[in-house]
Amino acid sequence: MNQPRIDLSPKVSDEVRKTTCYMCACRCGINVHLKDGKVAYIEGNRDHPVNRGVLCAKGSAGIMQINAPSRLRAPLRRTGPRGSGQFQEISWEEALGTASDWLGQIRRTDPSRLAFFTGRDQSQSFTSFWAQAFGTPNYAAHGGFCSVNMAAAGIYTMGGAFWEFGQPDWDRTKLFVLFGVAEDHDSNPIKMGIGKLKARGARMIGVNPIRSGYNAVADDWFGITPGTDGLLILSLIHCLMAAGQIDLEYLARYTNAPVMVDDATGLFLRNDDNKPLVIDRVTGDLMAFDQPGVRPDLNGSYPGHRTVLQLMAERYLQPDHTPEAVADRCGIPAERIRALADEIARVAFQEAISLERSWTDFRGERHERMVGRPVAFHAMRGISAHSNGFQTCRALHVLQILLGSVDVPGGFRFKPPYPKPVEAHPVPHCKARPDLPLDGPHLGFVHGPEHLALKDDGTPARIDKAFSWENPLSVHGLMHMVISNAHAGDPYPIDTLFLYMANMSWNSSMNTRGVIDMLTDTDEKGDYVIPRIIYSDAYSSEMVAYADLVLPDTTYLERHDCISLLDRPISEAEAAADAIRWPVIEPDRDVRGFQTVLIQLANLMELPGFVREDGAPIYKDYADYIVNHERRPGIGPLSGFRGNGDQTGRGMPNPDQLRRYIETGGFHIAHVPAGAEYYKAWNKDYQEWAVGMGFYDKPQPYVFQLYVEPMRKFQRAAEGHGERQPPEHLRDQLRQVMDPLPIWYPPLEDSRVDPKDYPLHALTQRPMAMYHSWGTQNAWLRQIHGHNPLYVSRDVWEKHEFREGDWARVTSAHGSITVPVALHGALNPHTVWTWNAIGKRKGAWALGEDAPEATRGFLLNHLIHELQPPRGDGLRWSNSDPITGQAAWFDLRVRIEKVAPQDEAGPPFAPIASPVGQGPKNLTWKVGK
């Protein structure tokens, strides 16, 4: 009998092009297989430092992004009312001419009337450069509504934080403790790292109200009450200090624990060179903390002063930090808290690691070995997105430091170009002048009230009120407040809102319905309160319908991108690495990469830094900028193949640079020298290597800041000291929250609503198969998460007598939604949650109006407001961390009640018309002959 011949190894492609994935922020390396010039298959690049060939569902489904029916096809000009979805396709010449006319008029009169904010674009060093050249103070990216608390707390405390700043020592960690990490963040590296831990028999502990994803494979799970992570961490610190289980040698050498603090002012005792002083253990004399030969005394004595560690002991050994005192609020029994502290201490000190590697510290002292505490922590948005998130993140960083487990074998490790002290970063700038660039970088780190972004009359200089008395350390801005403040004219009105890849009329905004109303509101003359809106995106998202001018972006396989050491690189702890994307295919639509569009606008407006004295363009497109731009002499967006092609970090622009990156798989690596892999902040060899790489121009060793003196300066201002004084209504808030040592206070919504009326906490999580709303229209990923129920604990399920298929009304102080419910057996009993950004508005993303995302999918955003409930004082208080302005998404409290089954989730929104229409029921195409 003849058997049919089956080709078991069909030819996948004619050609493979290597580039960088864009389906989340991991930035993994991918091999894009092409047949007849079309994408046939995407797989992981085994040589890439981030993923080493591993690729998740999102990355594999990238092929669906470039074939999505929702892709925008040409520039659009609005022809009907905002929100109608009525547009006319126009040429790029008209689109750029219109945008440059609008923006040019603003620049010539008052640049601050432009608010330019970008979403998760991964090119912030470039977009900030453009905004600075334009001259507006109103620029930031998405970090203010994501995880700025983690980044800011980490840099102020130790010069870096988790994720892009650092990683666990996956090869040596023996105990890994994970706080509040969503499953889409850093997913491939974390999954690979957890695999290494499991293979070695190391333990993993999850601290999260929700047990799913990473926490589902943890050896132990602490289902903490939302917003109380800081309380738990400070109790762990209490237990460790009470037991003497802290690394005294590490604290004395590498932190400001021995620095003398003036009892009268709370400021450091300093010498004439402004260096903090310590008591030398040998001589008993006051000395600068970094003086060669000094042996800092943690228990030093000087009249009217105490060491930082003495202040910490006085505070954290108080009874209110005992496990018994915090257990009920945390939802974790006291004995479990003590057991966790004991396990951390046992692993850190009884299972310490010692590597026989010699190194020299910043005081010139030679060490023959590297001692490691093999306890590593990782955290992200879960503990950040609360109004107490900055101090909670500070507490976690301080916990690591007390153990001596930061940048040591087995602990947390910095990724180049971090660590960097606060002093290595700019301070924020805000001086806007007609027809001139801004006076310096928009974003930075303030050292005291003198660096706030205020006008001469003391009012905020920025539309989002970043770096104001309301949120002094807002290093990423407050994107969630831009539309609300612009609509209210508080602190002033704007002319044009320019957004890139930020779905602010749907899942990226608190108070979604209210934001839609603000975008469409008119004044008494019938003019829009926000006069002009320019928006750029690759897809027909909900936000497109509210734009006056749409500038269509390419997909990620059709453009150049730069994953830069100036911005958010792909480094590993033992190597600095950056990467590119490049057009592996050409667009089949009339679209342009947004960064190139910005360059074209800059050339039309003749912005400084983009044109020469005669008005001739310096850069023709973004690829040209990547290669030829220099931020400082010899320092450009890419670190590899500089000069004649063999220079790394520093070197003249190399016209052949992009080709060299393409030939090496789209990335470049520079390995940290042997002996410099650990103790980077104090390691002489690392500091010299970092200077050679261009991270800074001279070595900048520093000590970790357990006590953050700039915060004390804000407290002192609130007490009446100094030239710059806060408004009266903010003095109490500043005194409370700007504590230089980590504290905990209840999330602000807890004090604004009655917990008896709203007894449940409501959270969102991002699933591994989605990232923000980027996978919304993806035909493969939609099959994994086509809709989202509200998950409730067994206690809530049984109390309300829910059954499979039931629906519920969920109510907050702001509004109500009606949603399907489902039982989750591993959930904090006082918490409900759902997947983020699954729900879509009918008509958007080229989805059918009966798509499950638009019928059974929903958002918790409708329950959240960008403002706190009114206090009766007539003031607008943002729903944010009062230190950084981080959006307090996870402070939300709700109540729930059973309702009859519904046909669709509520609240209802009318369908919006889409300029690309509705996609086919079945998405098919043919690749190859």
Automatic annotation (TrEMBL):
> GO CC annotation: what is one?
cell envelope
* Residue span(s) of domain 4Fe-4S Mo/W bis-MGD-type: 14-70
Principal place of residence: other
User: What InterPro entries would the database entry show?
Assistant: Asp_de-COase-like_dom_sf (IPR009010), MoPterin_dinucl-bd_dom (IPR006657), Mopterin_OxRdtase (IPR006656), Mopterin_OxRdtase_4Fe-4S_dom (IPR006963)
Pfam families according to UniProt: Molybdop_Fe4S4, Molybdopterin, Molydop_binding
Q: Specify the superkingdom.
A: Bacteria
**What molecular function terms (GO) are annotated for this protein?**
4 iron, 4 sulfur cluster binding; metal ion binding; molybdopterin cofactor binding; oxidoreductase activity
UniProt cofactor(s)? [4Fe-4S] cluster
Localization, UniProt: Cell envelope
Mind telling me which Gene3D superfamilies this protein's record contains?
2.40.40.20, 3.30.200.210, 3.40.50.740, Dimethylsulfoxide Reductase, domain 2 (3.40.228.10)
Q: What keywords are annotated for this sequence in UniProt?
A: 4Fe-4S, Iron, Iron-sulfur, Metal-binding, Oxidoreductase
Q: Which SMART domains match?
A: Molybdop_Fe4S4
Q: Where is this region: Disordered?
A: 906-929
Residue ranges spanning the membrane: these are: none
Q: Which family does it belong to?
A: Belongs to the prokaryotic molybdopterin-containing oxidoreductase family.
Name assigned to this protein? Formate dehydrogenase
